[in-house]
Task: inverse folding
């Protein structure tokens, strides 16, 4: 049993081989946190870890003669109004106008396994012995409301998940204005706050800040597309923690809507971290008998640095958050027509691209935006999910069949949550968008947000898209969402229920995903939102992969994929080789470098292969062969290690090592080339010290160098293409591999890359 209740000391101990979490019931019925960190052996009494502090004259929250001062108490779920002056986890407005609540311990339940929190997505178990769950019920007598704090500890991961649930029984209704999913307190402030922040086309850059007294927070108020600006993830790391050593506490929120995550350091150095639905614009009224469930926070503890934290998230999310037939399978190599054609295509053009794709070994052709309604540009058509027969006379049914006749599968783009005003759907239902009557309706990319808090809207969209899926041969869906939300107001909701709209909207999105993935379990879904602006764990529950970014430049992608890898599995990152000059940055990078980055993701192409030279086509064939041979290792089996950060240096590197440590693939990337530069060594990770490996890498010049240029750079075309040598794992990890500048020159100099294969003898 990984959770014990020590009756005599009123202490819960959640523990496994790697992590311990201790909760103690105080004399006033509140819960205090005694410890969260590296595993401790279990024993009856840990109460010495409760530090009382009586020196200062502050309100005492316990019947005399006690001395509990909540402002100095590390609490499990702090509230407002009873002597704690820090940010509360909870605010409830009552009919007498008061916000003061007092939840006291009532009972607990410990059970094997983990329960779902439907309709919200969450991590799961496949058998009861994988995890143990503790539910602590607290009760507020005046309101007659239960608060259930749920903690699940996984048996084989340093993972504790948390959520909170309210059950209101009292006859007078209450309004929840703030309800965090988790609040955790540490006795010191010796942390850096690591966040993944950015914007469209530069999503999830790694940012660090030392904690100071006061509050540091990140949030989203964008309604749904939160994660490009501020991903719902924070790591509190010790300042001396690195990728490979030191303490790190990860917090990841399984939610796609408005959120807040904050660390507050008190003037006595206690750090309080909390995460939950953003209280701004949120309020949820509960009548007697009604419940409210908060989303899940997944907490990962690592005392082996950031890499170990990320590897834990990767394995947990890949196997116990992602569901369905694609969970354990490597992904098809696709070609997406977006950057190849944008809106300018017809059936003939698409089939020409698909044919070439099939010839080089691509397995899936994806038709992106522009196939429906009057969608010839981004001013019109969204909402009209029926095919544009002028462009595609055989319909999606006919086109998908023709693509399959080429020997590859067919996939389709949709943007189901949106509508253009120039559409049949909007003309028929102008009140179906989120808007406030009498005010201006803000738009982005000329599109408006359908009110997914309304069931009839979700039902209608479901029927429209399900019809296409039923009639055609579709193996993949890219579900896009291209704007932030405004005017969060539903015309059918009561004035006092408007605070529910944003959360209900997200529940509507989850509902539509649930219905579509249930009816079409064989379809591989990829979520997307203007690139990677909705890359969050909740999306992975429905769609096992997410388009990482609209920035497809290889060098920029190293940063984006590096940051994304803090939480999200490699197999979940949509990554394509696109055309040059790059459409976002106008930068030219070798096709070899573009693939070397895209290998560490789902891998695909987003260009018209008919426009490539013969040499480039041969290179593409080699790349596809390489990916087919290595995708099980990179996407499913392997552990990912970040070796060198692109945020710190000109050079970046990462690698994937198989579980049995017999094979690894290493990606090395540089931005600008250097002349007469110094030597470079790259120390590998995760190998077996005693195993003899062969290290090999392709040293042939890039395809875009014709023979003359190659020669001028000293890159003889008749060079033997593969260089290799043998070394033991300890050599590769402690001495490192040499990075050959001559090879970087042959690989294009600026924005070049080398892929190393490491294989046990
Ligand atoms: C944004 C996506 O990120 C792109 O890949 C593409 O699908 C466009 N939307 C289409 O409008």
Result:
């Amino acid at each position: 049993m990984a959770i014990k209740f020590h009756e005599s000391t009123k202490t819960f101990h959640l523990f496994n081989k790697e992590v311990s979490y201790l909760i103690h019931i105080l004399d006033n019925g509140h819960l205090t946190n005694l410890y969260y960190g590296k595993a401790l052996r279990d024993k009856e009494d840990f109460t010495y870890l409760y530090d009382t502090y009586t020196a200062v004259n502050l309100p005492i929250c316990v019947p005399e003669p006690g001395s509990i001062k909540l402002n100095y108490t590390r609490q499990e779920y702090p509230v407002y109004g009873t002597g704690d002056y820090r940010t509360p986890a909870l605010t409830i407005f009552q009919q007498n106008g008061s916000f003061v609540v007092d939840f006291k311990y009532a009972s607990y339940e410990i059970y094997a396994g983990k329960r779902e929190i439907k309709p919200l997505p969450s991590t799961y178990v496949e058998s009861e012995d994988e995890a143990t769950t503790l539910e602590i019920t607290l009760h507020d007598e005046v309101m007659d409301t239960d608060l259930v704090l749920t903690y699940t500890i996984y048996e084989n991961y340093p993972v504790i998940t948390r959520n909170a649930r309210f059950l209101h029984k009292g006859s007078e209704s209450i309004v929840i204005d703030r309800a965090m999913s988790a609040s955790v307190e540490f006795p010191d402030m010796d942390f850096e706050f690591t966040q993944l922040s950015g914007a469209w086309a530069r999503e999830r850059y790694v940012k660090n800040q030392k904690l100071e007294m006061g509050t540091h927070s990140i949030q989203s108020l964008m309604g749904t597309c939160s994660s490009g600006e501020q991903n719902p993830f924070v790591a509190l790391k010790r300042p001396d923690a690195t990728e490979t050593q030191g303490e790190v506490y990860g917090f990841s929120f399984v939610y796609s809507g408005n959120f807040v995550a904050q660390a507050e350091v008190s003037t006595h150095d206690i750090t309080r971290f909390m995460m939950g639905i953003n209280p701004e614009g949120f309020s949820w009224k509960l009548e007697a008998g009604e419940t409210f469930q908060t989303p899940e926070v997944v907490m990962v503890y690592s005392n082996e640095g950031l890499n170990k934290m990320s590897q834990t998230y990767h394995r947990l999310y890949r196997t116990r958050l992602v569901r369905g037939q694609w969970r354990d399978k490597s992904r098809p190599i696709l070609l997406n027509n977006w950057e190849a054609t944008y809106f300018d295509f017809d059936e003939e053009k698409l089939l020409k691209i698909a044919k070439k794709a099939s010839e080089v070994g691509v397995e899936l052709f994806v038709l992106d935006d522009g196939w429906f309604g009057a969608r010839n540009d981004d001013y019109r058509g969204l909402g009209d999910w029926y095919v544009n027969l002028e462009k595609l006379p055989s319909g999606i049914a006919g086109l998908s069949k023709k693509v399959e006749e080429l020997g590859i599968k067919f996939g389709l783009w949709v943007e189901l949550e949106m509508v253009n005003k120039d559409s049949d759907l909007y003309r028929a239902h102008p009140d179906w968008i989120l808007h406030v009557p009498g005010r201006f309706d803000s738009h982005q990319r000329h599109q408006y947000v359908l009110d997914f808090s309304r069931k009839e809207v979700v039902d209608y969209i479901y029927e429209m898209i399900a019809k296409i899926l039923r009639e055609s041969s579709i193996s993949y869906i890219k579900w896009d969402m291209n704007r932030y939300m405004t005017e969060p107001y539903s015309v059918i909701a009561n004035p006092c229920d408007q605070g529910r709209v944003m959360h209900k909207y997200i529940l509507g999105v989850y509902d539509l995903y649930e219905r579509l993935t249930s009816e079409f379990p064989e379809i591989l879904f990829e979520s997307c939102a203007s690139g990677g602006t909705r890359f969050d764990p909740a999306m992975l529950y429905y769609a096992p992969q997410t388009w990482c970014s609209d920035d497809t430049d290889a060098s920029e992608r190293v940063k984006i994929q590096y940051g994304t890898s803090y939480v999200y599995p490699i197999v979940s990152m949509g990554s394509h080789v696109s055309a040059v000059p790059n459409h976002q940055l106008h930068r030219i990078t070798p096709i070899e470098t573009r693939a070397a980055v895209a290998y560490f993701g789902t891998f695909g192409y987003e260009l018209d292969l008919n426009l490539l030279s013969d040499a480039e086509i041969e290179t593409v064939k080699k790349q596809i062969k390489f990916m087919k041979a290595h995708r099980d290792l990179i996407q499913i089996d392997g552990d990912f290690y970040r070796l060198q950060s692109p945020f710190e240096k000109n050079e970046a590197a990462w690698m994937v090592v198989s579980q049995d440590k017999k094979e690894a693939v290493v990606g090395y990337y540089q931005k600008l080339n250097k002349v007469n530069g110094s030597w470079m060594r790259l120390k590998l990770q995760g190998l077996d010290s005693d195993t003899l490996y062969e290290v090999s890498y392709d040293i042939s010049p890039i395809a875009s160098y014709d023979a003359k240029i190659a020669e001028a750079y000293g890159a003889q075309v008749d060079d033997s293409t593969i260089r290799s040598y043998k070394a033991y794992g300890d050599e590769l990890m402690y001495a490192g591999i040499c990075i050959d500048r001559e090879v970087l020159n042959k690989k294009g100099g600026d924005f070049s890359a080398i892929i190393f294969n490491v294989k046990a003898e």
Remarks:
- The mean pLDDT is 95.
- The pocket of DGJ is lined by residues 338, 368-369, 413, 480, 482, 528, 530-531, 547, 550 (CB under 6 Å).
